[in-house]
Amino acid sequence: MSKYFPPKYGSGNFHCPYCQVYASQRWEPLRNVNLSPHPLRALVPGSELNPIMIDKAEVKSSCCSHCKQTTFWLSEKMIYPRGRTSPPANDDLPCEVKEVYEEAANIANQSPRAACALLRLAIEMVLKFLGETGSINDSVGNLVKKGLDEQVQQSLDIVRVTGNEAVHPGVIDFSDETDVGMLFGLINVIAESLISQPKQIQNLYNNLPEKARKAIEKRDGKTK
Questions:
Q1: 5-29 residue pLDDT tens
Q2: Distance CA 48, CA 169 (A)
Q3: Counting Cβ atoms within 10 Å, is residue 102 exposed (0-12), middle (13-18) or buried (19+)?
Q4: Pairing state of beta strands 22-29 and 59-64?
Q5: How far is 135 from 12, CA to CA, in rounded Å?
Q6: C-alpha–C-alpha distance, residues 173 and 182, integer Å
Q7: Is the pLDDT of residue 45 over 50?
């Protein structure tokens, strides 16, 4: 997968929350926008009860050069749209894992800890898809015995530890969506290494001439 650049305040380029295209952004200040008739009003704390005016120094907008949609920022945080800021799920993830991934993506900005717990569930589902039935720790150990790449092992352990410890106050505090963004990236790294790459290699092997495949299988003792 290509690298994902989440929306970031002041950045000249990022993946647009509307079209998901990596595109340049045109930044402009807003000039005393009355939020009472605007959808932004519902996204500012307290504004659902009291129509407010926001100073131009506090609100800025970024316009995507690709889809021409506008994103609004308050105090350097994206407040509209309220959509995801995580990378798309790896296409080769099983459908049920994608559903959990998308659920985590939809709540990551509002509740990083809840998103973290969902991502831990997602990795458990990936391991089950790969034929592992024990705990994440046992599954990782079993995969290591099968020759799991050390970096993928570390990625799995990061998800295991953060997903498990984030529910315990004072251990790992996921108060910043940047930390959760790291976990989304790790899920896709794991999927790329354990699902996508083996799939691609198998497809390439299957496309070899039948005679060549039979010779290889005979060499490896798979056929006589």
A1: 888 888 999 988 888 889 999 998 8
A2: 31
A3: middle
A4: antiparallel
A5: 43
A6: 14
A7: no
Angle separating helix axes 150-165 and 177-191, nearest 10 degrees: 140
Rounded distance between C-alpha atoms, residue 55 and residue 70, angstroms = 18
Residues 6+ apart with CB under 8 A from 220: none
Q: Which amino acid is at 54?
A: I
- Taken as a whole, the chain contains a residue count of 224
3-class secondary structure, 59: strand
Those residues with Cβ within 8 angstroms of residue 126's Cβ, 6 or more apart along the chain or in another chain: 93, 94, 97, 187, 190, 191, 194, 195
For 128-149, what is each residue's pLDDT tens digit? Answer: 888 888 777 788 888 877 777 7
Domains parsed from the chain with CATH numbers: 13-80 (no CATH), 95-206 (1.20.120)
For 73, the enclosing helix (H) or strand (E) is strand 70-74
Tell me the residue type at 99: E
Compute the distance between CA of residue 18 and CA of residue 171 in angstroms, rounded to an integer: 35
C-alpha dihedral sign at 74, 10, 102, 138 = negative
Alpha-carbon gap, residue 149 to 63, rounded angstroms: 41
3-state SS class at 24: strand
Question: CB of 180 within 8 A of CB of 145?
Answer: no
Q: What is the pTM (predicted TM-score) of this model? A: 0.63
- pLDDT for 72: 85
By the 8 A CB rule, do 162 and 172 touch? yes
In whole angstroms, what separates CA 168 from the centre of its chain?
Answer: 23
